Amino acid sequence: MENDLSFSEVFSHHTYPVLGVLGDPLNTLKTPYAISVAKTLISYFKTPENCNASEKTWNPRTQYWNVVNVDYDIEGYFSSLIDCTKERELILDATWINKFQKTPAVLISIFELSNDDSPLITAIKNIGQNTSLSHTAVIIVDQIQYESSSTDSRIAEILKHSGLDSKHLAISRPGNKAYIKEFLGGLEGDLWVDSMFFYGSKISKRQHKIGLQLPLIESEKGDINITQPNPENKSKGSDKWYYYGRGKLIRHYIKQSYFSECCNESELKKMCIKESYRQIQLYLNELSRSVQQDFNSGEFIDSKVEAYIRKNIHWCEAMCIMNSLCVRMEREAIREWQESPRVQHLQNLLQVLQNSKIVSSFYSWYLISQSLESLLPIHSLAFDAGKGVPSASYSENIDYRLLEIAPVQPQNIGFLHYSIATILYECSKALEKENINEFTIASGNQEIKISISSIWKKALNHLIESENYYASKLWSLRINSTIADLLIKLGNTELGIKKLRSVIEFYREQRWGLLLENSLEILKNYGTMENKFMCLLELSSSKKTSSSAIEWMDFLESGKIENDLSIDMSTILPVIICKPIFFKNPKNSLKKLKFRITLLNQLPHPIKFDELNVEFEPKSCCTICLNSVEIKNKRYVIEGDASIPDGTASIHIVRVSGLIKKNGVNVEFFWNFPQNRSKATFKYAISDNSVDFDFIEIEKLLPAISGEIIPFSIKVINKGTEKTTKSKVLFSLENKNNGKEIETRTVDIVGLNINESTIVTEEFKLPESVGVSTLYLKAKVESEFEYFGKTQLEKGIEVPTVYPLSVAINEIKDKIQVESTNITNSLLNLWIPGIFESEIPPTKSYVFLVPNKPDTLKFNIRRITDYEDEKLKEIKNKSFEQDYSLVYQNLEENSKKLVVVDSECEPYATFGKPFLLKYIIENLSDSLTSLLINVYPTEGLVFSGHRKLTLSLLPYEKTELLYTLVFLGYRNALPRVDIQIVSNSKDTTPAGDKIIGLGQLEVAVKRHYPAIDGIIRRDRSSICVIP
User: Fold this and answer.
1) What is the chain's alpha carbon radius of gyration, rounded to the nearest angstrom?
2) Do 776 and 674 share a structural domain?
3) Is the pLDDT score of 995 beyond 50?
4) CB-based burial of residue 454 (10 Å sphere; 0-12 exposed, 13-18 middle, 19+ buried)?
5) Is the separation of the CB atoms in 772 and 802 below 8 Å?
6) Where does the pLDDT of residue 622 fall: very low under 50, low under 70, confident under 90, or very high at 90 and above?
7) Per-residue pLDDT, 329
8) pLDDT in the model for residue 31
9) Cβ neighbours, 10 Å, residue 594
């Protein structure tokens, strides 16, 4: 039964004009065509296009009909509609609304034209004789009948003998969709007019009754007359005032509001709803005073008038009506986007309860929750439609607690669910406070019991509904802590405690004391005695009161704890804070280190330990064990000297622990200190990385350029605990392929203070002969400290090298056109004296003309590096020369096949990320050239692209092959690419002279870019891989 306890929704639903369909045409019509037409017609009124059931019930955006089936025994149909309002002596029983929505305003009957018209005429005549309701007959005509010349005369005879006028006789003939739409629209328009006449008549009669009832309710001075009965029912007696007095006036207003809603008289409807709402509050005040009078006279057995009021059917009915009227006003506010009355309604409910002398807060919370639950369907619909709900108005004297949790400006439906859940939770807490497990209320004509467990279940369901609507961490934690409490109360202790512990952990981290205390108060009542002790301990740390401290101490004395406890103070709000520190010793006392451990009591009550121990690492440096230590509400300090054992690098305070012994149980409070906590550790010796260094901004110089004068920089920093007297940096550059050392440098650094740093820069001239290769740069820093000897640290980095330019040359009469492309990752300043000078960004080209046909092009190149470090910005890269030898080929040489292979890619590849590699293959011969290409993977590398390919290139044709690589290690080798020229019989005749840029000096070209089997390889074989 408890699922039915919410206030009745039936009076909150939107109402519509009622269309009565006579008989059962879908079963009585004979021809399939007639049945199909009838089905279309009934469906049009019953389920319009784009109909939404929830929308139709709560807040429609268009006009609907309520379609009912009416027997041809019309009198019998109407007699079956029962209204029990008078019998049950209520303001308005739910049976009335059921009767109202089944009482047709207009009737429609559906017939098919047959050979004999007399049964049809008789049926229409009988309908007119048995009811005064407007009746429209629809006659279905098929295609043959429609084309027959006698059909029109037959229709005229039916009109003549049946008594119907032409407006109430509709002929459905065959037609297309446009005709059907027009026919149904016209039919609905006529039915709507007739229904308006019906409800208009109802409104007029009801208004007359209201006019008669008003003078009987209020005297000229406006005093309330509780017991005056209706003069039409004097024999009923004054004890029926709630039915015949103000209750009757409310009944008239409510009925009038439904009549006006059915004919779209919105202003009259709103006036009737508001007046009903005002009258129902007066009615409740009258009812409570009447009950008080009867209770004082000793007529009731109940020891509390409050319990009687909760079980009074008239009281519960009035509350139901008050809520349903609020829902209807809320619907109008959403529709017209005006201020909502929902919060003021809650305040009115509280005022009514106050006037009735009801003092139990649980009943107030319960009524408010029920009122808000009645708003859920209409609010859900509004939020689903994307419109939302308007903000609520309220008076200045509103209860602050109600305003705090009421849905004044809900942003989503989750807020309303949370408000309801919070109110139900308050209701359950009030019941627990009064030690009540259930209470009784009236529902209809029966009494039902509301248990506290049912309230917990409803609150839990609403919280779960609201959980996903709150992005704020604080709100989510609040919801989760309440969910945890409810789960525990409902018996799901394991899940509840698990959820509660996760909430407590976050509250503890954020130091949200009040929220933490609330959660701990819940948790302490569940689980083991040890769990309760932990909760009491942390509560005392949060509250910082003597009473809270005494509570856990008394609990420890009680002997309820059976097992030893070991409590890490870093995992809870600590009752004592422990702070260790070492002091730096003067030079003459290096073998003794002074330390201090401070214990700060967070409670205004002393804590006494039976033992207090301090553990060091290494253990031989010091031992501390104190007995009977009392830490009052001030600091307790332990000071001493720790010796420095030989062969150790540091002294570390590992652990401080305090032991309380009670009733054979040991409770240990301890503080662990990790080695990286600087104040708890003293490093008096030096490790190899005490003076550390890193290569800085070297990535802006990579790949390096063959023949370049390149500056390498490192940043050296003293991370030790002592000043260095001196340091020395040794640079070494070697060829990684053969391990041969190219050049070494040594730089001296003066002493560095603690945490002081310096930058060391050295220039290296890279060999021109290194070409496309990989060098390796090593740096070693050797340092001497003021007291503790020497250290050294060595690091290295790969330095890939490339040629700076890709040069393409074409002959134009007596000149040559040169296109030079920057293939590094730096801006290059490029010039040839007397010809051009320009700055070329990475991957960009510069085209210029050179007169005559020189044998060599000598480029002057300077790298321009944009450093970020201020000191490095002072470094200016030096210029260097690169010579490119030009080889002119004659016709005979051109007749040979010649293919050039280049590659393009970024200068760096990132470990684990896709890397794009492009191969450019160009046929430089005057004949068709066919190639066989095989690509082989290398270790620590995966790639996608062609692995085996046969390719044919026309004379001077260029093509590209794309590969996507992912490096799974730091090996820098690219996939191995084998290319072979395969013979074909379709060589073309040489076209003429052509000039090819082959690299550096002719000797260097032969060494680094040899044409092996007709293929010149200028593509990369390796790449630098970075993390």
Assistant:
1) 48
2) no
3) no
4) middle
5) yes
6) confident
7) 93
8) 92
9) 15
Q: What confidence score (pLDDT) does residue 1004 get?
A: 25
**Domain housing 592:** 545-551+561-683
Residue 626 DSSP SS3: strand
Contact 867, 873 (CB under 8 A): yes
The C-alpha atoms of residue 388 and residue 378 are separated, in whole angstroms, by 10
Shared domain for 52 and 170, answered yes or no, is yes
Domain closes at, from 488, 504, 538: 538
pLDDT at 187: 93
**Rounded to whole angstroms, how far apart are CA atoms 28 and 42?**
14
Q: With helix as H, strand as E and coil as C, how does 770-802 read? A: HCCEEEEEEEEEEEEECCCCEEEEEEEEEEEEE
Residues 160 and 56 in one domain: yes
Confidence of residue 216 (pLDDT cuts 50, 70, 90): confident
Task: Assign residue 791 the CATH number of its domain.
Answer: 2.60.40.10
Kindly state whether residues 635 and 769 are assigned to the same domain.
Answer: no
Ranges 136-145, 664-673, 838-847, 1004-1013: which has the least confidence? 1004-1013
In angstroms, what CA-CA distances link 65 with 199, 202, 721, 832? Answer: 14, 18, 89, 92
- Domain assignment present for 894: no
Question: Distance between CA 110 and CA 33 in Å, rounded?
Answer: 13
Instruction: Give one DSSP letter per residue of 492-553, joined into a string.
Output: -HHHHHHHHHHHHHHHHHHT-HHHHHHHHHHHTTSS-HHHHHHHHHHHHHHH--HHHHHHHH
Q: Is the pLDDT of residue 845 over 90?
A: no
Q: pLDDT (tens digit, 9 = 90+) per residue, 245-288?
A: 888 999 999 999 999 999 889 999 999 999 999 999 999 988 88
Q: Answer for the pair 693, 714: CB distance below 8 angstroms, yes or no.
A: yes
Q: Are residues 484 and 394 in the same domain?
A: yes
CATH code (residue 654): 2.60.40
The verdict on residue 208 lying in a domain is no
| Of 101, 8, 96, residue with least CA distance to 322 | 8
φ, ψ of residue 233 in degrees (nearest 5): -130, 45
Q: Find out whether the peptide bond into 703 is cis, omega within 30 degrees of 0.
A: yes
